[in-house]
Amino acid sequence: MSDAATPSTRPAPARIRNDLRVVAELVAPGARLLDIGCGDGDLLAYLAAEKGVDGRGIELSQAGVNACVARGLSVIQGDADRDLAYYPDRGFDYAVLSQTIQATMAPKTVLQELLRIGDKAIVSFPNFGYWDVRLRLMFGGRMPVSERLPYSWYDTPNIHFCTIRDFVALCREIGATVEKAVALDGNGNRVPFNAPWWVWNLIGAQAVFLLKRR
Amino acid sequence: MGSAADDFDETERRRRREADRPSSLVARFGDDQPLRLDGGALLSPWQIAYTTVGKLNADRSNAVLVCHALTGDQYVASPNPVTGKPGWWGLMVGPGRPVDTDRFFVICANVLGGCMGTTGPASTDPATGRPYGVDLPLITIPDMVRAQAALVESLGIDTLFAVVGGSMGGMQVLEWAAAYPERVFAAVPIATGARHSSQNIAFHEVGRQAVMADPDWCRGAYLEAGRSPRKGLAVARMAAHITYMSGQSLHAKFGRNLQDRERVTFGFEADFQIESYLRHQGMSFVDRFDANSYLYVTRAMDYFDLAAPHGGVLAHAFAGTRTRFCVASFTTDWLFPTTESKAVVHALNAAGANVSFVEIASDRGHDAFLLDEPELFATVRGFLTGAARARGIEGPAAPRIAGDAPPTQPAVKAVVQRGGGR
């Protein structure tokens, strides 16, 4: 039990969030990866332990960065809007943006930066086209507040919500190829069948995209 | 009254003895091993005074070099023989601390140009038998690092596990990583920058002018003249001391409080507590530090610009580096603000280096790096733990309780640590 309080000696979390697991499955072993908005470093630690990934992170919160560095991860304090410009072209195999793009000032620029820095980009985001969101807006008549979207409109960091179809359109606009896409339902489970985007846009609470520079 | 003055004199006498014959270990390099200085001169013979704590492992892979700041010394974790005060970074370096002396072999050397036993202006020039004074060639941060590299080599250590330091010590860390990338596995530059800013040069110049305006400076030859530019050096220290604290922390500590009086005296005595505090800081500093040394080391910081020899592109200084970096800054540090640390981080990113960076919230200004800042300790401990794992050596002991208290001793009260470190 003595090691219970020493995460630094046990880097690999036993479990990670479902959407992070989906992200992790898209990453090739031994890759170089930049995780933007890496939080406490769960994905980086998991990838390092399970796939031998050489990972780096960027995180806005001091608490998050400290947690990462204290578990031996290479993470800098910074944000997606301001700090990506300093990374060299194609410095990484993957640039990952988990549940963060909706909180950036300039999502389009950020997405372009991801594809400049990484050969591939993995982006996950909450889908504002999800049926639950639509119903709340339609019948409640107010901005949806739920377990997944816990903020009120006036204090939310999520200033650029989009739907799955919006995102697909943006990818087309910046010339990114969608190599793979996964929709997760309200319980965080993978939607197990392929369907047109408009179906996923209705039943997917979140989406994870693997993009490639065209 | 007389006894206090005698105490000061005794402290100063002890310090002057240390310049040539330090109480610590010392490595001497003869005429056959001159030190090439950036200014063009060859220095020989020369010596470097240092302390070590902990044991070097069989592979010689657990050595950590700690670089001290402007007016620090080699007594990082052991009592200073001049002042009797405990080591200046006992919170960071020691058994169970982030730089864990139970696991690492810690080396700390007095900088070139210093006055605690490494060759500096207070040392005796063997050619004349008199103190060098201002005849010593100017010293740079790379010169300091070259001297440390010679020491480390003489100890039989090829690669340092880590180089750690704050402020001017952090400049040395960056210089080490740039000049000897293969010999530094991990680098921890804290509250520092890759160059001295115009504002920082300005403050240093005020300090130097104060020293040189003191008639007792004797154009640098005060040691021979049996004098000491105490007033000038004290003023220099007072000005510098302000830059080590935040306006916020000064106000919280002193406000507009009066010193031992009910009302202002309508004169120029130290009416305010802050005045009394600064005077005390100035006077206690002159006992333990050589005025010419102050000129030399401040100049070394002013000249530091790591990007300059690389076409002005800082990233080029770190091209291809495999060293792991952990950069830390403090929110209220206006001497080395976060922007300076971020410039280093961005250059390291551009060079594809392995880097961690934390800005630590603290209201204590630049001084924070020497004080009890649990976030800093947690960061350094975590970073060194990860680096040790990658290096295949034992990392620092895990903290046993929340925060970063050491396993056995209670935290040394932060105020005790003041004075020596920077």
Gross morphology of chain B: globular
Strand order of the largest sheet of chain A: 3-2-1-4-5-7-6
User: Percentage of helical residues of chain A?
Assistant: 25-40%
Q: In the CATH hierarchy, what is the class of chain A?
A: Alpha Beta
Record field, number of beta strands of chain B = 14
| Fraction of residues in β-strands of chain B | 5-15%
- Structural classification of chain A: alpha/beta
The fraction of residues assigned to DSSP E strands of chain A is 15-25%
Rg result of chain B: 21 Å
Question: What's the number of helices of chain A?
Answer: 8
Q: Would you tell me which CATH topology of the domain at 18-197 and 306-417 in chain B applies?
A: Rossmann fold
CATH superfamily of the domain at 18-197 and 306-417 in chain B: Alpha/Beta hydrolase fold, catalytic domain
Number of strands of chain A: 7
The profile of the biggest β sheet of chain B is: 8 strands, mixed
Q: What is the H/E order of chain B?
A: HEEEEEEEEEEHEHEHHHHHHHEHEH
The CATH architecture of the domain at 18-197 and 306-417 in chain B can be named as 3-Layer(aba) Sandwich
Q: In what order do the strands lie side by side in the largest sheet of chain B?
A: 1-4-8-5-11-12-13-14
Using the coordinates shown, work out and report the CATH topology of chain A: Rossmann fold
Q: Which blocks of ≥5 consecutive residues of chain B have pLDDT under 50?
A: 1-5, 405-419
The SS-based structural class of chain B is: alpha/beta
